[in-house]
Design a protein that fits this description.
The chain is an alpha+beta fold. The protein contains 3 helices and 4 strands, in the order αβββαβα. The protein has one domain: 2-Layer Sandwich (Ribosomal Protein S5, domain 2). Strand 3, helix 2 and strand 4 form a beta-alpha-beta unit. The protein starts with 9 loop residues before the first helix and ends in a 9-residue tail after the last helix. Helices cover about 35% and strands about 20% of the residues. About 20% of the residues are buried. The longest helix has 17 residues. A 4-stranded mixed β-sheet has the order 1-2-4-3, sandwiched between helices. Helix 2 crosses helix 3. The structure holds 2 RNA strands.
RNA sequence: UGAGCAUUUCGGGCAGUCGCGUGCCUUUUGGCACGAGGAAAGUCCGGGCUCCGCAGGGCAGGGUGCCGGAUAACGUCCGGUGAAGGCGACUUCAAGGAAAGUGCAACAGAAAUAUACCGCCAUAUUUAUUAUGGUAAGGAUGGAAAGGCGAGGUAAGAGCUCACCGACCCUUUAGGUAACUAUUGGGUCCUGUAAACCCCACCCGGAGCAACAUCGUUAAGGGGAGUUAAGUUGGCCCGACAGUCCCCGGGUAGAUGGCUUGAGCCAUACAGUAAUGUAUGGCCUAGAUAGAUGAUUGCCUGCAAAACAGAACCCGGCUUACAGAUUUGCUCAUUUA
RNA sequence: GGAGAAGUACUCAAGUUGGCCGAAGAGGCGCCCCUGCUAAGGGUGUAGGUCGGGUAACCGGCGCGAGAGUUCAAAUCUCUCCUUCUCCG
């Protein structure tokens, strides 16, 4: 299994925000933009408004874990940015996981194999 | 048994599966080791380190403020003194100077550092009173009103005089390194405020790892000031520096080092009341750069795995947040012996 | 990560050599005029939060981000905490 490629440039983030399509959930907001070179990238945004460093780190870890588990089911070649919303504070992994799957299905980047 | 005061340590443990960061070994797969805190937080102090001009002097500015000690240093810590609170164990305290000077004290009150509204007394006029003078005992105001109380004294009064008490200044003796405590004699009777200016003593150059160093990338030039009196530091001055470039706006791409062996941790012995220091032996314990600890299952302790919370150059403190468990010593009350 | 600035009625805010300060002023709200009606415009005056008391007029306490301290007295001075905003390469 290859490593998860992350987005680490501010300009790329801004491009995805302005040009990508977005769907919003109670827990998360997901922006998707097809990448030019065919590599999937993941970016996670957690605002400072959500809470202190522990809460923000917890949210990032839950999102990253959910992406890692479901990476096989996501069709490649997309830049995906996941933004955590306020309801994510205090929830457990299962809620975050189902929320992410729901949004990825809306974006139709979910290639269901197991269902 | 109840109530309370101080204080120590911990902040779940073990195992399985998938996954993350760093290092090492293999190098296609992979394997092994290590991997957040008592506050990592707030950035409130102090220091190391780096650069700024060699890190100097004065003014300004800022900080600290009982005494002695500890320390690299501190606004921290330890031991003592004093004051306040508590029956007590004990706790709290920015605790120098108001008798060097200046300012301020609203409203109220007659008057706020100086006085005469009412009252009391004397004299004159007159007997309703009015005027002048004396007075700080009594009233009233205020947070604060000329040290308190008694006796003498007086026209009425007053530290005006005296006894006792209190405060302050000088002083004698004893104890203590000192703050200070006890004490002898003399003098004085003075509002509060220095977290108002100030005085006294001591301390402080500035900026910060987004510092800084090395290697590289982009680029395009334009405008302004200056020519030995301008520039450079932190506000100013002096001194110093370099000996031609400086400022404004615009453009560009980052990588590596700094980055963890340190005033380090643990154990023992000795010195010291203690903070702490010295010696010997052992140990190596995160180092990321959109930023590593998560998901899940089982067992154990427990009512319940459950609080506050995530290193970002590194240390010493302080402050604030914190569910629950826990060590040791002491005080008071009640009962029984 | 580091360095700073600010917080006052519903909103924007003035006030900080400590005292007559629940706090000037503007918007907003509310009343009147104008209009067939409304908006805009003009004029005028009032109350300002919260708790307690009172039939009411009104009176008293607490309140200038929160909590302590200094002082006779704190929006103002000092300390600690909270929130918001700005700057750095």
């Amino acid at each position: 299994m290859k490593k998860t490629v992350t987005i680490n440039k501010n300009t790329l983030f801004r491009k995805i925000y302005s040009k990508g399509t977005s769907y919003v959930n109670k827990y998360l907001a997901v922006y998707v933009l097809p990448s030019k070179d065919g590599i999937s990238r993941l970016g996670i945004t957690v605002s400072k408004k959500l809470g202190c460093a522990v809460i923000r780190n917890r949210a990032k870890r839950l999102i990253r874990e959910s992406y890692r588990i479901n990476e096989e089911n996501i069709s490649g070649g997309y830049n995906i940015v996941v933004v955590a919303r306020k309801m994510v504070v205090g929830t457990d992994f299962h809620h975050v996981n189902s929320a992410l799957i729901h949004l990825l299905k809306k974006h139709s980047v979910w290639t269901a194999e197991n269902e």
